[in-house]
């Protein structure tokens, strides 16, 4: 692949970053720099990804934490590897047990929606299989920021304050007070530019580093999490942690106009992005900013999401295979349902997400697409005392309908929103990409890939281009800079267009492309957050 899209008429005011010895792109400048420092110390792209991910648990806790889940796509020596670092539900949980507590659907906060956190195991597995440096060396930057502190960046400060106000009003029970002790130690959220530190985070990260993650699942940290769960009548027990290990999986793909677009297989929702592209590839898109382009993109995504929400769950429980869903015949049958007017598929209400994404590349051609998340910001609202471990709430997506494919069961992995992406052509890597943000993620993947392949935008322009998001029914949210004449034309096709001034819900992405002939790296970072690229 050549960088032949640099002169496309639509380009953003920000420019793509180019380098050749290493690159880290993520949503927080200090985390990006931490990853680059590891590259300069002799680490590879995998070491840099782990360092960046661990640092993000400290410098962007509004979106992820040590108690997160994680997924990764790793390009190493000409082959793509997938890692599923999502955890299962506790063995003692059941639909009946949850309903006995008075819930008709899975709650958002508290211990009930907490599943086994997978991120520390993902770090350890990546390090063991592909890393060049020890986990102690790789986690050192995160430990340093936790011990010595860092100043809050603007977007980080905004969402920290919003979470504090929300939690102060809603999370008043005793088990939630440890969140306030950790993230609002002065009785308020830290302000933009103010230094925040956490000795608990530092101690926990050091323990994970020294034991290669063992203490988190079969040691002192596991004991603390289980004690906390038992104290507040949670379902997590010793065996849930002891039996867990991040799982290496075979990535799935569709071929889109000569490029292979890769995602992690279910229980992740990357399948939705592939379903949408598999539908869209049967259309010709000659121009980006036309009503025909947007209408068909939106309709393809609506159909893909309808299927995704109906079928995606733990791969063992899916009622249909990935191969069937991604077949050309199935894509054609869904494509034929798209007409001139907006479809009205089965509605649902996707919640907002809280996720961090990063991409890394080194001078040897190794590349990593990595995503890590609590969920809905800080997650469950729970912090294990003295550890800095904020627990995710991924179990919220389980259904309490026993007939639904994603029905809650013991030891099951739920439908998961976080998805890393990767692009190849032939047998060569183009590079990692991702757009975080709950149910916006596959929608962002589709738009970024089409911006790149169909419309020739460089990585920064592909990310900066105005986005749309299907919300449910015929409702489509668009960003303020979305072309008004196209919005009006979409309304005439039956779409319910809602312009919004808050761009936080449209996802936050990163891209690194690599020229296979020269090894030159080209990166783009998200303008909707405190995004940064550290390059060498």
Automatic annotation (TrEMBL):
UniProt-listed Pfam families: G_glu_transpept
SUPFAM superfamilies xrefs: N-terminal nucleophile aminohydrolases (Ntn hydrolases) (SSF56235)
InterPro entries: GGT-like_enzyme (IPR052896), GGT_lsub (IPR043138), GGT_ssub_C (IPR043137), Ntn_hydrolases_N (IPR029055)
Protein name: Gamma-glutamyltransferase
